[in-house]
Design a protein that fits this description.
Length: 174
């Protein structure tokens, strides 16, 4: 999928969720069947030879491509969610945000030392949520991890949130 197709199908919403923020709405990428299939195809090509056994999607937009990609790769799918959303025993990680803290959780039994894990979300901004999720996956004992986003907001330097030895890929940099 070429970057121009992604840009053309990406909706920009000024002043959302608050004044001064330009929000990149990926739902327009998902509602276009050709674009959605192109995203899945491109992600599959990037990761088909990495031995991925689990894909972790971050709530909630990360569930869409994460789940589809897991199915295509023949891997399991793990949901990373906000507190109170997962019914069994969880591991959790609290992380700093611009104004306070937040917490992300995964089921304690979802990942083990034999797993090669791809973490996926729609957008890399500051990287806080993904970095916390990566720490959870490493705590679970995964033998290898990869990180992927559809879009990266380059000016926010979110890649600095991850260890240098982790491969981080994005499909579109803005």
């Amino acid at each position: 999928m070429n970057k121009e197709t992604l840009r053309k199908n990406l909706r920009e919403i000024p002043d959302f969720p608050k004044p001064g923020i330009l929000f990149y709405d990926v739902t327009t990428l998902f509602k276009n069947a050709e674009c959605l299939q192109g995203l899945i195809d491109e992600l599959y090509e990037m990761y088909k030879d990495k031995g991925i056994t689990k894909v972790v999607g971050i709530e909630s937009r990360g569930f869409i491509l994460g789940g589809a990609l897991a199915a295509r790769l023949g891997a399991g799918f793990v949901m990373a969610r906000k507190p109170g959303k997962l019914p069994a025993e969880v591991l959790e990680e609290t992380y700093a945000k611009e104004y306070g803290t937040d917490t992300i959780q995964i089921h304690k039994d979802s990942i083990n030392e034999d797993d090669v894990v791809l973490l996926h979300d729609d957008l890399l901004a500051t990287g806080g949520t993904m970095a916390a999720t990566h720490r959870l996956v490493k705590q679970s004992g995964a033998k290898q991890t990869y990180i992927n986003f559809v879009i990266e907001l380059v000016g926010l330097n979110g890649r600095k949130a991850f260890p240098e030895d982790v491969e981080v890929t994005t499909l579109l940099q803005l």
